[in-house]
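PROTEIN DESIGN WORKSHEET
SECTION A - STRUCTURE
LENGTH: 532
C-ALPHA CELLS:
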C-alpha cells in the first residue's frame, strides 16, 4: 500500500485527470482522492498507474458503491452485454485475449479465434464501439487493457458468472492455430515451442497434445542446439506443459547443463516456477544440483556483490530460490528432501539469503520449521536484517532469543583458520590454486559491528528502537574505528537516533578509542584497508 501511495502521488497527472479523480471520489482535495484511489485498487500498482488514468480518459463512470475494480468490471460488463447475443459473439475473442497478454494484429486475432465469416463484421463493430474501455488498440494491434481483467474473467471460482471466460478454450484455439501452421509449412520456424507446449497443455485436449508430440518428434532436429527445457523452466509455471516438453525431449539428460552451466531445475528454482520444477524433480532431476565454484578473481568488481548478483558461485536450487523469495519453490524443494544446510561459496545458507533479501514470510517459514539448524546463523541474520532495515525480521529474531552482541576487535583474524587467506585480499594477477583461501561475507567481523551499529549507520530508526527495547548491551560495543553507537550517530548525522541513544543514559565521558595498526594485521584489500 505504501509503495502504491508513493507511485500514484509521484505520477504526473494532467489537471483534467486530477479534476476527474476528485469527481470520481466525491472530494475537492486531490490528495484525498489519490489516497482513496489507492484503497480502491487495494494497492495494485499496475492498476493505479495504467488502468485508472486510461479509464479517466474514456470517462468511465465509477459508482460510490464500488469497492474494487472487480465491482467496476461487473457493472461495465452488465451494461455492455445486456444482450446475451453480443457476449456470445465476442466470447472467442475474449478467450484468445485472456490466454495471452501480448498484443495481436486484428487479422491474427480473428484467425486464431476461428470465427465464421458472417461473425467477423459483428465482432469488429462490437470491439470498436462497445469494448473500448477494456480493449487497447495501438498500431492495428489489440490487447486487453490490463491483466487484472483477464484474471477476473477467467477466475475458475466464478464459473457460474455469466461473464466467465474459459481460458482452456482459449488455449485450445491458440494450440490449434499454431499446429495448423506446423502442418502446412512442415517446420516450427517462427513458432515458440515453449508457448505452443503451454497452450497444448492448458487446453487439456489429449488429441492436440498427441499431435504436438508427433510433429515435435518428426521435426526434433530443429531443436538440436537449443535448450528448450531450460527456456520452459524459466518462462512457464505449469506441471503439464513441462511434462509435455519432457516427453518430447525424453532422449536428453534431465540434468543437462546449458551454456551457463545450470540445469533446467535450477532455472525453474531461480524464476520461482515451482510447478515446472515439480515436474522435473518427478523425473529424477537432481534436487541438490550446485553451480560451479569460483574460478577467477576480477579486481574490477566487488567480489562478494558480484557473486550474489551475477556469478552465484556454488549456489544450490534452495539457495537461489530462497534468495529470490520463492516460497512455493522452497516448499517444493523441501518436499523432495533437499539439503537445507548447503552454503554458497561465501558461506551463506538459504536462511541467511532469505533474511538478507527481506523475504519475511519465507524467513518465518524456514525459521519455524528448522530453527535448530539455523542457530549458528542467528547473529549474522540479526546483523543482516538490521543492516537492511527489515524490522519484521529483526523482531522475529529478537522474539526467539537472538542477542545483539559485541564482537572481539583485537588484531586477530579469529574467524578464519590458521594460514587461510581472505579471497578479497588476493590480487587477480595471482593464481588462485596457490592459495589456501576462504571467501566469507565477513564485514561484521572485520569492522566489529553489532546489529545496532550497522542499523545506526544506515539510518534505520525503528530497528534501532526495537534493538534497544530488547537490550541496551550493544551501547558499549566499539566498532573497528573505536566508536560506540552514540559517536556513530553523530558521524552519520542521525539526529533522531542520537537523541534516542542519549535517553538510554550514555555517559558524557564516553570517547572514541582508535585501535592503532589493527588493519595491518588483517588480510584486507586496498579498498577495505582504507575503510577499516
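SECTION B - SEQUENCE
RESIDUE ASSIGNMENT:
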Amino acid at each position: 500500500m505504501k509503495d502504491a501511495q508513493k507511485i500514484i502521488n509521484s505520477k504526473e497527472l494532467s489537471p483534467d485527470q486530477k479534476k476527474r479523480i476528485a469527481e470520481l471520489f466525491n472530494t475537492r482535495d486531490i490528495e484525498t482522492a489519490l489516497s482513496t484511489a489507492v484503497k480502491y485498487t487495494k494497492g495494485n500498482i499496475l492498476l493505479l498507474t495504467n488502468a485508472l488514468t486510461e479509464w479517466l480518459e474514456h470517462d468511465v463512470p465509477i459508482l460510490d458503491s464500488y469497492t474494487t475494480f472487480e465491482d467496476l468490471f461487473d457493472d461495465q460488463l452488465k451494461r455492455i452485454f445486456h444482450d446475451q447475443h453480443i457476449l456470445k459473439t465476442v466470447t472467442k475473442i475474449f478467450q484468445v485475449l485472456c490466454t495471452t497478454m501480448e498484443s495481436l494484429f486484428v487479422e491474427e486475432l480473428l484467425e486464431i479465434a476461428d470465427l465464421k465469416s458472417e461473425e467477423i463484421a459483428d465482432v469488429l463493430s462490437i470491439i470498436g464501439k462497445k469494448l473500448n474501455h477494456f480493449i487497447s488498440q495501438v498500431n492495428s494491434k489489440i490487447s486487453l487493457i490490463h491483466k487484472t481483467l483477464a484474471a477476473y474473467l477467467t477466475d475458475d471460482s466464478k464459473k457460474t458468472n455469466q461473464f466467465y471466460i474459459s481460458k482452456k478454450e482459449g488455449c485450445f484455439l491458440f494450440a490449434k492455430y499454431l499446429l495448423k501452421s506446423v502442418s502446412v509449412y512442415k517446420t516450427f520456424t517462427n513458432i515458440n515451442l515453449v508457448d505452443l507446449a503451454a497452450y497444448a497443455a492448458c487446453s487439456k485436449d489429449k488429441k492436440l497434445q498427441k499431435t504436438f508430440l508427433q510433429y515435435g518428434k518428426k521435426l526434433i532436429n530443429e531443436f538440436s542446439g537449443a535448450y528448450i527445457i531450460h527456456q520452459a523452466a524459466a518462462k512457464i509455471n505449469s506441471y503439464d506443459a513441462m511434462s509435455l516438453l519432457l516427453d518430447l525431449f525424453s532422449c536428453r539428460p534431465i540434468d543437462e547443463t546449458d551454456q551457463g552451466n545450470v540445469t533446467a531445475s535450477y532455472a525453474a528454482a531461480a524464476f520461482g516456477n515451482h510447478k515446472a520444477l515439480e515436474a522435473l524433480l518427478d523425473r529424477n532431476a537432481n534436487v541438490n544440483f550446485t553451480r560451479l565454484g569460483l574460478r577467477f578473481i576480477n579486481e574490477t568488481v566487488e567480489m562478494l556483490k558480484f557473486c550474489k548478483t551475477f556469478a552465484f558461485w556454488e549456489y544450490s536450487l534452495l539457495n537461489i530460490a530462497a534468495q529470490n523469495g520463492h516460497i512455493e519453490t522452497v516448499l517444493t524443494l523441501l518436499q523432495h528432501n533437499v539439503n537445507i544446510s548447503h552454503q554458497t561459496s561465501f558461506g551463506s545458507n538459504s536462511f541467511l539469503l532469505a533474511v538478507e533479501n527481506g523475504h519475511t514470510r519465507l524467513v518465518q517459514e524456514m525459521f519455524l520449521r528448522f530453527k535448530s539448524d539455523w542457530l549458528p546463523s542467528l547473529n549474522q541474520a540479526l546483523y543482516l536484517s538490521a543492516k537492511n532495515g527489515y524490522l519484521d525480521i529483526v523482531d522475529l529474531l529478537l522474539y526467539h532469543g537472538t542477542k545483539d552482541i559485541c564482537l572481539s576487535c583485537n588484531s586477530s583474524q579469529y574467524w578464519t583458520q590458521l594460514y587461510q587467506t581472505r579471497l578479497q585480499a588476493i590480487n587477480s594477477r595471482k593464481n588462485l590454486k596457490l592459495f589456501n583461501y576462504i571467501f566469507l561475507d565477513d564485514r561484521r567481523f572485520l569492522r566489529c559491528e553489532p546489529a545496532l551499529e550497522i542499523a545506526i549507520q544506515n539510518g534505520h530508526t525503528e530497528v534501532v528502537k526495537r534493538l534497544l527495547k530488547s537490550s541496551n548491551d550493544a551501547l558499549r560495543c566499539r566498532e573497528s574505528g573505536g566508536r560506540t553507537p552514540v559517536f556513530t550517530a553523530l558521524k552519520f548525522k542521525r539526529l533522531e537516533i542520537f537523541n534516542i541513544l542519549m535517553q538510554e543514559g550514555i555517559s558524557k565521558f564516553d570517547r572514541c578509542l582508535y585501535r592503532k595498526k589493527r588493519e595491518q594485521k588483517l588480510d584486507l584489500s586496498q579498498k577495505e584497508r582504507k575503510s577499516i
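SECTION C - NOTES
The mean pLDDT is 86.
Residues 2-62 form one domain.
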